[in-house]
Amino acid sequence: MQNAHLSALETKHASLDRKITAESQRPLPDQMIIADLKRQKLRVKEEIALS
Predict the structure, then answer these.
(1) How far apart are the first and last CA of the chain?
(2) Chain CA centroid to CA 9, Å
(3) 3 state SS of 3
(4) Which of 42, 48, 22 lies closest to 33, judged by CA?
(5) Which among 3, 10, 4, 5 is positioned nearest to 44, based on CA atoms?
(6) What are phi and psi of 27, to 5 degrees?
């Protein structure tokens, strides 16, 4: 069970990373969206570290 949870967190972390990259590469990236995605990514990273 723990391994499945960790795997799901790592998948979510990678997904957020892709979203950040995609938003950053737009002609007019929305800095608020990027900041929110980075906060979400940090929360997931912290949860991974605690697992």
Answers:
(1) 12
(2) 9
(3) helix
(4) 22
(5) 10
(6) -55, -40
**7-25 in b/e burial notation, b at 16+ Cβ within 10 A?**
eebeebbeebeebbeeeee
- CA count, 13 A, side-chain hemisphere, 21: 6
Contact criterion met (CB below 8 Å) for 48 and 6: yes
- What one-letter code names the amino acid at 13? H
Q: What is the pLDDT of residues 8-24, one digit of tens each?
A: 999 999 999 999 999 99
Please tell me the pTM assigned to this model: 0.89
In the block, tokens 């979203």 appear at: 19
The span from the CA of 23 to the CA of 10, in Å, is: 20
**Token pair belonging to 15:** 């997904």
